């Protein structure tokens, strides 16, 4: 009999080891891993209904009205007791946030939230940081498929609806485009698509119909730093922001057309209708010279304008493009991105380089943080620094103006489902 005991004991021992190994693997599978968002138990998602149907279904199941196009959702399922698991809409630290039990969601929506792996998902469970975290954490969250992606909305690739834009910016940027019925609507702007704060006095509006637009522009003199007529002695002698500006006439006419078969090429024409009373800008002398710093002064000229652009998405942006353009006698190249998401932040970025002989080369750098409010207001407004860099009176490349710019999201005028 003894000769059978040892093999049986050996088999029993192997069985026990196998069971323990499987349990260990099971426990390990339940552990949270920083590199696997599907294992996170306490997280926040900067959600949009256009990202996936679960973010619309979630609002249906929680009876949230009116529906939010953009919002923050926080999920906490760390407690094994389902009664203590929660889902929160808005800022978790705010008493006004909407709080629900996680069990109020259907199994499909629960699984969709837990298994979401986009870069807009942030782990809120405390973890150990190291000296490289400040440099590497954001980089680790970058995913190639979200770095560059095709447009998400039809209006971004159709010439007749290309003007539609829910963002009103205080200085520069694309015009606010409000549709009455898709290809028919209006747009309004303060500055040009390529200017920053205190750079130009131009404002105006356009009427749009099937890719074509016609509009008028005028000026608000206070939108540039100073003109000689209203400047004090100290302001006349100041060099900050008093050069490399674009001055426009009292009344101008502007027409444009986005060529059919896509939203990639726009042509236009600008002409002066009324130059108005001449009010020269402050003259800033070049150091050690008898000449003055450049300004672009439009008085009685006409210009052929064009923009070649490529709309796309980057970091989940709602509106982004790269472009090269010619506008009012100057050449531009740059990038614009709205509501980009990375490492738990929602932000806008604008970069524009101005070339030509009418003004000195200039680089505009602008970023605005958006996730300030709650619910819809999470992306309803954004604020941030806008910096203009160019050659100064001393001959060195430096800062012309530093200001806070702002943009407001008026609404989602044309939502495709």
Pairing-aware structural class of the strands and helices? Answer: mainly beta
* Quaternary structure: single chain
Strand order of the largest sheet: 6-21-20-19-18-17-16-15-13-12-10-9-8-7
Mean pLDDT: 84
Question: Which spans of ≥5 residues are poorly predicted at pLDDT below 50?
Answer: 23-29
Residue share in helix:
10-25%
Helix count, DSSP H or I runs of 4 or more residues: 6
Largest β-sheet summary: 14 strands, antiparallel
Q: Choose one word for the global shape.
A: elongated
Helix and strand succession?
Answer: HEHEEEHEHHEEEEEHEEEEEEEEEEE
Measured by DSSP, the beta-strand proportion falls in: 35-45%
Strand and helix map with partners:
Elements: H1 2-30, E1 42-48, H2 54-61, E2 70-76, E3 86-89, E4 98-101, H3 107-114, E5 121-123, H4 133-140, H5 144-147, E6 167-169, E7 176-181, E8 184-190, E9 202-209, E10 212-219, H6 233-237, E11 246-247, E12 251-258, E13 265-274, E14 296-297, E15 302-312, E16 319-327, E17 330-342, E18 345-355, E19 362-369, E20 381-391, E21 397-409
Parallel strand pairs: 11-14
Antiparallel strand pairs: 1-2, 1-5, 2-3, 3-4, 6-21, 7-8, 8-9, 9-10, 10-12, 12-13, 13-15, 15-16, 16-17, 17-18, 18-19, 19-20, 20-21
Helix pairs in contact: 2-3
């Amino acid at each position: 009999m003894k000769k059978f005991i040892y093999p049986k004991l050996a088999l029993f021992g192997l069985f026990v080891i196998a069971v323990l190994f499987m349990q260990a693997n099971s426990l390990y599978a339940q552990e949270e891993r920083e590199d696997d968002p599907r294992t996170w138990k306490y997280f926040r998602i900067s959600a949009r209904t256009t990202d996936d149907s679960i973010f619309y279904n979630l609002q249906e199941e929680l009876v949230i009205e009116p529906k939010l196009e953009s919002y923050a959702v926080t999920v906490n399922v760390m407690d094994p007791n389902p009664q203590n698991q929660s889902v929160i809409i808005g800022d978790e630290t705010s008493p006004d946030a909407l709080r629900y039990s996680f069990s109020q969601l259907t199994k499909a929506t629960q699984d969709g939230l837990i298994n979401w792996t986009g870069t807009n998902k942030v782990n809120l469970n405390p973890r150990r940081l190291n000296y490289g975290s400040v440099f590497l954490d954001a980089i680790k969250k970058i995913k190639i498929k979200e770095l560059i992606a095709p447009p998400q909305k039809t209006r971004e690739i159709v010439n007749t609806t290309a003007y539609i834009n829910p963002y009103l910016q205080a200085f520069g940027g694309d015009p606010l485009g409000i549709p009455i019925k898709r290809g028919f609507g209006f747009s309004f702007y303060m500055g040009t698509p390529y200017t920053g704060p205190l750079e130009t006095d131009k404002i105006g509006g356009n009427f749009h119909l099937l890719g074509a637009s016609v509009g008028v522009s005028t000026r608000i003199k206070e939108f540039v730093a100073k003109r000689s007529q209203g400047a004090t002695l100290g302001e006349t002698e100041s060099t900050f922001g008093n050069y490399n500006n674009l001055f426009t006439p009292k009344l101008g006419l502007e027409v444009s057309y986005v060529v059919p078969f896509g939203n990639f090429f726009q042509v236009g024409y600008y002409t002066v209708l009324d130059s108005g009373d001449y009010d020269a800008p402050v003259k800033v002398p070049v150091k050690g010279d008898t000449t003055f710093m450049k300004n672009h002064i439009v008085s009685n000229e006409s210009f052929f304008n064009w923009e070649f652009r490529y709309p796309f998405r980057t970091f989940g942006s709602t509106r982004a493009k790269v472009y090269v353009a010619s506008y009012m006698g100057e050449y531009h190249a740059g990038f614009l991105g709205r509501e980009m998401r990375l490492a738990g932040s929602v932000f806008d970025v604008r970069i524009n380089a101005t070339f030509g002989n009418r003004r000195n080369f200039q680089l505009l750098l602008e970023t605005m943080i958006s996730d300030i409010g709650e619910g819809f207001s999470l992306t309803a407004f954004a604020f941030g620094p806008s910096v203009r860099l160019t050659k100064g009176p001393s001959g060195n490349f430096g800062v012309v103006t530093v200001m806070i710019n702002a943009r407001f999201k008026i609404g989602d005028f044309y939502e495709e489902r």
